[in-house]
Amino acid sequence: MSESGVRVLKILGIGYPVRAPAGEEAILEQAAARLQEQLDQNQQRFPRAGSHELLVLTALNLCVPLLRQEAEQREAEERLAVLAQRIARQLQGDGTA
């Protein structure tokens, strides 16, 4: 399946040659498998949709949870930064926590 770092990923029955960075071949194949899995699910939900529509719907379905996760991560980082400032003030003897 690979020749000098190139993987052929099959999505919607079409093979796409993709050059994978060294050490990231497995994650690329997992991403393609997840994409195909989601495409299959959407194809069952929207049997009249064409390939283009399926790809758009699937991309949106995959992006929404990612955006939520990114927002949660930003919020957690902000809370950690506030806590780190409190701890630093306490250690400096400020006492206004």
Describe this entry's structure for a reader:
It contains 2 helices and 3 strands; from the N terminus they run βββαα. The chain has a 3-stranded antiparallel beta sheet with strand order 1-2-3, with helices on one face. It is of the alpha+beta class and 97 residues long.
Annotation keywords:
single chain; about 100 residues; alpha+beta; three-stranded antiparallel sheet; about 65% helix; about 15% strand
Structure classification: alpha+beta
Global Rg? 22 Å
In what range is the share of β-strand residues? 5-15%
Let me know the average pLDDT.
Answer: 91
Shape: elongated
Helix content: 55-70%
Main sheet overview:
3 strands, antiparallel
* Span of the ends, CA to CA: 59 Å
Number of strands: 3
Q: List SSEs in N-to-C order.
A: EEEHH
* Number of alpha- plus pi-helical segments: 2
Low-confidence stretches: none
Strand line-up of the largest beta sheet: 1-2-3
Give me a quick take on this structure.
The protein has helices at 25-45, 51-92; strands at 2-3, 6-11, 14-19. It is of the alpha+beta class and 97 residues long.
Spell out the blueprint of helices and strands.
Layout: E1 2-3, E2 6-11, E3 14-19, H1 25-45, H2 51-92
